[in-house]
Amino acid sequence: MSIKLGNELFPTKTSVTGYISKHLQGAEMGDDVKEGDELFWVLKDLVYSHPKSEQKIGTGIKRFFVGETPNPNWRGRCFWIKRWDGSTEDFSTKKAIDRL
């Protein structure tokens, strides 16, 4: 069974992980992912699979951006959500992909 996120069709969870990883690692810290980007729609659909999706979405997703992980024990990058009210929240794509 394939996985549809945005307009993309993925054959497996591994292919979703690869797609997300490619975009995340190819971006600079602070890079925006806005509504006009296909990645925006993939991430937006993916956030609904996150175990804390309601908390992550909050007042609604304005955009995503690349930032540092908030975990002090693991340095790296992740996608962050910028909500319409201006607040931000980190977003673990791994947790969301695990629930697809």
In short:
The chain has helices at residues 13-25, 38-47, 53-57, 93-98; strands at residues 3-5, 8-10, 32-33, 61-68, 77-83, 88-91.
Helices and strands, with pairings:
Blueprint: E1 3-5, E2 8-10, H1 13-25, E3 32-33, H2 38-47, H3 53-57, E4 61-68, E5 77-83, E6 88-91, H4 93-98
Antiparallel strand pairs: 1-2, 3-4, 4-5, 5-6
Walk me through this protein's architecture.
It is globular and about 35 Å long. The longest helix has 13 residues, at 13-25. It has helices at 13-25, 38-47, 53-57, 93-98, and strands at residues 3-5, 8-10, 32-33, 61-68, 77-83, 88-91. The chain has a single domain, classed as Nuclear Transport Factor 2, Chain: A (Roll), CATH 3.10.450. The mean pLDDT is 95. The chain has 100 residues and is of the alpha+beta class. It contains 4 helices and 6 strands.
